[in-house]
Each structure stands twice: as C-alpha cells, then as structure tokens.
Queue: 3 jobs
Job 1
Amino acid sequence: MRPQDEDALRELAGLHIGKATRLRQELQEVQIQQQFATPGTEFALPQTSPLGQALAPGPITAALSSQSTGRLNELFSQLQTEYNEAKLNYVALANLDKEDASVQLQLADAALNAGDTPSAISAYERFLELAPDDPIAPSVRQELERLQEASAPAASG
C-alpha cells in the first residue's frame, strides 16, 4: 500500500465502513434470532426457587443461547475492528490533508463507532474549525456537546 495515496486511503476506509455495516446488520439478525430462541428469559424467575427451577430453560435452549451469545461477541469484536481500521485510515487522510473538513467528519463517525470518544470529539472540533458555517455545523455542535457532557463524568470520576 502507498501510505500517501489519498484515493487509496479513502477507498480502504470505505471498504472497512462497508464491512462494518454488513457486520452490524448480521449482529442485529443474530440478536433477533437469540430473542426468538430464548423467549421470556427477560422475565425468568430466580432459579433458586422451585418454580424457577421448574420453568428454567432446557439444555437445548441453553445451548442455543450460548451459541448465539458467542456469535454476538465474535461479530461485535469484528465490528469494532472494522471501525477502528476505518478510523486509522481517516487519521492518515486527515494528516495528509489537514484542511479537508469532510475527512474530519468521517473520522469522527468512525472513531465514535470504534468506541474512541476522545478522537471523535477532536475530529468534530476540527471540523467546526474548518467549516463553522457548514449546513450541518449546528448538528455537529449538538453532537459535540452531547459527547463532551457524556465524557465529563468519566474524566472527573
């Protein structure tokens, strides 16, 4: 790969975002399947009571639940990896073209989805520096405020 090739970096980041989108859809499908495979578990009685023991899920239900939980964990891990890879590509792009506001927006989105709130905040702030009058700037300001408020207790606590 050519680390200075902006087009290649954009394409690679887009491929990671596309894969993450497909993984997110699959993750949602597995979550729905899990709900159908283990109906009523949200309201299950404690298994320490006789009634709870009598109504406890059987071994097949437990195995299905365990299998789908494993798949959910695997998909979530893959999803985080794809968003993180996209974020790294957008960081590289942002370093190559420090004046491209759209890259900052894409970086913020990828960072947010990768669970990197500090990087998302920085990218949103940089976007607002570069494009304060952009039509989506008010939405970005709202999101930035929400993220800063959400991360403030974690930073002070």
Job 2
Amino acid sequence: MEPRIQYAQTTDGVNIAFWTLGEGVPLVSMSMSPFSHIQLEWQVSEWRSWGERLAEKRKLVRYDPRGAGLSERDVADYSLDAYLLDLEAVVDHLGLERFALCGSFALGPVAIAYAARYPERVSRLLLWCSWARASDAYQSAQAQTLIALRDKDWDIYTETVAHLLIGWSAGEAARRFAALMRESGAQGALRAALASVTEFDVTALLPRVRAPTLVLHRRQVPVPDLGVARALASQIPDARLALLEGTSIAFYLGDAEAVLQAIDDFLSEGEEPKTEVPVAGAFRTVLFTDVEDSTALTQRLGDAKAREVLREHERIVREALRAHGGAEVKALGDGFMASFSSATRALECAIAMQRAFAAHSESAKEPIRVRVGLNAGEPIAEEKDLFGTAVNLAARIAAQAAGGEILASDVVRQLVAGKGFLFADRGETVLRGFEDPVRLYEVRWEEEG
C-alpha cells in the first residue's frame, strides 16, 4: 500500500510533504539532494522494496525538502538553516522526541548540523556517501564538469548525473532517476538549491556530534571518493566507517542487502533495553539526581515557571533512563532515584543526562544544573521501592556533587574498570549517617577540546 502523504509547516511558513511507514523506533531518512519526490520514488520497484524492508523493524519517515517533490516549491531560501527547518517541522509534527537520523550525499551536512545542535534528540546518526564540506566532494574533475554543465543544458546534466551516480551500466534505473530529477521541481529553483548545497560546510560542528555515528560508503563511488568518507569518519567522535562494494550512490541498487544488514546491525545496538523492575536481593547500581538550588529557583521564578524548568529535568532524565535500561524507582520532586542491573549502563546514562542538560542550557533562558550520585550494592526491594545502606549512600554521594557533576563510589569505579570511563579521585569524605569516610570519584563526562 502506498504511504499516505501528510504535511508539516516550517516556522518560516513552508509546507513540507512527508510519509511514514511501519511502527517502532523512528528512523528519519532524508533526501540525498534537492532532487526529491516521495510519491514518484514509491513507484520505483527497487526503491519501494528498499523502503518496505527498512520499515519492517521500525517507523520509517521520509520527506521532500523545500522546493522539491510534493513540498512547497515557491521558495527562495535554500540555506543550511532553511533545510534544518524542514527536518524540524516533520519531526516536531510527528512528536518525535528521539529518533535515528540518516543523511545522504548532498544533504548529509544538514543531518550533521541537526545532530550537533540537538544531541538530545538524535539517538543514532547514519551518513551515506556524504561529507561535511561540499568543496571536498566536488573537487574532482568529474564533479567540476557536472557543475559547469548544470547551467548549460538541463537535460544532459540530469542524464549525466544519473548515470554517473547511479551507475553507467544501470541503464533503465539511471534513466528513471534522471526523469525523477526533472520532475522534482522547476529548473530555476533546483539550480538555486544545488548552488546552495555545494557551498555547505559543517566541518566545525563535527566534534560536537554526540550520537553514535556510522559512515557508510561504497568503495567505487566516483563522487565523493573514498578519502572523503575516511576523513568524515575520522572527525566525528567515535564514528565508525563501513566500506561496501559497488559504484552506485543509490541504497537500493547493487548489493542492497549488505547495506540493509549494516544499517540494521547499527540501529539494533541503539534499541532501548527493557526497563528492569527491582528484584529482592539483586545487586544493583543506584543513581540519584538532584536539581541544584531548586528552592532558590522557585523563589526567583515563581511556582509556575519553576515547574516548567523541573519538567524539562524530568523529560531529560526519563529519556536517558529509557535509552539505557534504567528503572525509575521514584520521582523526588526535584530529583529522581533510579536503579540499574549494570554499572556500565548506569554510568553511560549519567553521562548522557549531563550532556543533555549541558546542551539544553546552552540555548535555554534558565539553565539546569543537576547533581548525580551513584553507588552499587544489594538494596532491599519492597513494593517497587528500594531501601538500605546502598541506597542511602547513593543519596549522600549525590548531595556531595555540585551541579553538572557526577560522583560515584569506589564500588562503582571498580565495577567498570577497563570500560573507558575517566575518573578523578576526590579523596575520602565523611558522609552523614556513615561512621567511616567514603572515597568518592568524579566521573569526567565533558569532551576535551
């Protein structure tokens, strides 16, 4: 069945056409370039099979960018920020708080920029045959020839682009792609959009990408070449490079099964673990959060506005718990108590929280500074709550932290030894209710540089 076309409106008033297919964790798959037509794509059997396969395990979201396909065509702004508005309109219309994002070819820089600006929303980032700086991709003689041809003969340009990028031996598939390019929009508008995207440069944003990232590339693709893919993967923190065989930039042509497998494997790593219920006598890692100076916050802002700030704290904490398999034991007004069966996941969750709070505070009028404390042991479980020394110590450790800090007990540090976490010894501290001093460790979560 053909997906139902829907519309979302951008903040600058442009109507964006989109469809969704399947259920589950959302994957937003962007167009490869300003050439896009989500209805005509679906008429291509190879593309339709590809989309249906992707949607078997998740909710696939696909949209036409401004000026193309079924989206509003009478537009003049094709800047990077304008393309970001298109993406924002669709995900906000669908209410997607967190999703995987796939950016391809010429619009890959838009996906990179979104992931860097909104780290709390992008769970996983896929980049297909793409780049950060357009000049890197278009420096070859073939690419420069195409740019010169673009303004001289539109039909020859589209045919040449289709055969070069889809594959000279693709025959009918390349001709269909060339026809789709011409149907995507008016020549003048598409030329303006192409001129804009060939100037995109998001290199400076690469170190700010926090989402796990997979750079996918086919070795024999002429534009961009393999060196561009390697450079892109090397500049994104902890990004992986998957090299596949083939000459086509089209996902659905060539060895499409290998591409699907690489995507499925990568996205399955980010699927939310099942939230675990506290079990009596089980060894747990207990985590507490506490908003710094929440009483003063309420006095300064008033009840209503302070509550808005605290709701944002609740949203960020609960998203992090869902993503890392934590069990919310109880909300404490200005904090949370949570538990994990894995100390590693508990620390990863704490770090994700602090990074999300830091990202929020960069643009918010009222920053949120949160203390986080962790301890591990065998708490007493009763009626979905946890009690005992392990819990009390975790709460006392959180109280010792400053806003923006994560403090952990030595037990937690030892449990994650060799897992790559960075700790700073804060020395022994006397905590209320405990006779012996407790050695605390600060967990370093901010990227250097």
Job 3
Amino acid sequence: MNLVFLAALLGLLVGVVGAGMGGVVASLIPTATRRQQSILLGASGGIMLGVVAWDLIPEAWNLSPIYTVAGLVAGTLFILLLRRYESDPGAVTANVRFTKTGHLLGIGIALHNFPEGLAVGTVFANDPASSLWWELSLLMGIHNIPEGLVVATTLRLGKTDWRSIALTLFLAELPMAIGAMLGGVLGSITTPWVATSLGFAGGAMLILVAVELIPLASKQAGWRWATVGLSVGLGLARLLCLLLS
C-alpha cells in the first residue's frame, strides 16, 4: 500500500514540477502571441505522441499484445464517451475573455493528466527501479512545461493574479496523482493488468492529442504553426528517448 501512495505522490510531483516550471517561464515572458501558443500546444502534443509511440506501447506490447490492444480500445472509448458530456472548448474560447480561456485550457490539461498519471504509476509500481520510469517521468514533466506556460500566460492576459494562476495549475495536476494511484494499484497486481493499464493510458493520450491538443493549437494560429510545434515536440521526445535509453 505504501508503494501505491508513493506512486501517487511521485505522479503529482512530476505534474506540479513541469507545470510549475511553465508558470515560472510565464512570469519571465508575461505575454505570448497566438502563434507562440499554437507552437507550445503543438509541442506538448508531439511530446505526448512520442511518449506513447516510443515508451508506453512498446512496453505494454512486450508484456501482452492482446491486453495492450484491449487497453488501447478502452482508453480511446473512455475519452470519446467523456467528450460527449462536455461543451466544445473551441466554440467557447473564440468568444470569451482570456481568463475564461485559461481556465478551459486548465480543464483540458486536467483531463489528460489522468492517463499520464496512470502510466507513471503503473510503471513505477511494476518496477520502481526501472529505467523506463525515469524516462517516462522526465518526458511527462517536460511535456507539462509548455502546457503550464500556455495556461499561465493566457490567464495573465486576463489580468489574473499569480496566486490564482498557481492554484489553477495545481488543481490541473491533481488528476495525475489520482491516475498514478490507480496505476500503482494495477501495476502491483498482475502482468495483464499492467499491459492493459499502459494500453489504456496510451489510447487515451493518443485520442486526446488528436481531438483536443492539436485542434486547439490549430485554432490559435492555424495548422502550419500547430504542425511546427508538433514536429518540435516529436523531435524532442525522440531525442530524449535515445539519450535516456
């Protein structure tokens, strides 16, 4: 049980550190153009894709291909069903103040932090000494930096004070701790559950990039800059995977 709580604590720490660094950068660069926001969101999506393609899915597949596929399908369906009960953020953000936009971005980040935490907690509980856990945590933390930066700079444009910005970033990372705790439980049970959990996280993260992050990045400044950010994120993720492997 201590391992499960430690997984949750580490999951929260990974998220808070990454988003917090983004907030610190935002304090040094108080404004961000829509083009810069598009690139940052695209890069965040690229890093997430890299995590799934080069870490989560290969690890899960080596454990059990069948359970990996089952997890992928379950994670994809979970996000698609969840999105049916939320309003279209793109339709809202085009007509509201920056403060509302920043809060909506924070909600979107909180949504995909759960599968991220699930992956981190599962890998940690399955083998705390695994090099994959360190690699995954570093990539997740780096992935949270541009997201935290976008949320913080957007809220600053809405004249939000730093205390409220910090609270928003912290609350957005809480689902990562919850996901890590659940991952800690599943990762300490059996190999099929580990493969299913990693597959679920991978499927959820893939669909979130496809239907949330990249479309949102394109709405900031067009597909061109969203694609630039996506390419940068993928390149960074691949470089880090090679360096840490």
